[in-house]
Write a structure and sequence with these properties.
Distance between the termini: 40 Å
Shape: globular
Order of helices and strands: EEEEEEEEEEE
Helix content: under 10%
Strand content: over 45%
Number of helices: 0
Length: 116
């Protein structure tokens, strides 16, 4: 079992920055991939960025160059640094962890609102 708790969401003006953090607990050594997804009202949940246990990263095209994902294995945290935020980045952001046998765990989400 893995538990995930997100923090750092909020309201920011377009062009601003926010840093999201996800704290993992439980069987953290079993995490293979951890990352961020988001869901805007009326839309399906979508991939934003992931990082593997080896440090390989992957980003949604529209956030490349603006968002940076990082992982601190010693602290069992993963962060998402978001710069040059746009109104279309407004969504609930969820932390996700994938462990062995493709089991997936989700956090409760944190709201990010970007005003124009």
């Amino acid at each position: 079992q893995v538990q995930l708790v997100e923090s750092g969401g909020g309201l920011v003006q377009a062009g601003g920055s926010l840093r999201l953090s996800c704290a993992a607990s439980g069987s953290t050594s079993s995490i293979l991939v951890i990352g961020w997804y988001r869901q805007a009202p009326g839309n399906a949940r979508e991939f934003v960025a992931t990082i593997t246990s080896g440090g390989s990263t992957n980003y949604k095209d529209s956030v490349k160059g603006r968002f940076t994902i990082s992982r601190d294995n010693a602290k069992n945290t993963v962060a998402l640094e978001m710069n040059s935020l746009r109104p279309e980045d407004t969504a609930v952001y969820y932390c996700n962890a994938i462990v062995q046998f493709a089991r997936s765990y989700w956090g409760q989400g944190t709201q990010v609102t970007v005003s124009s």
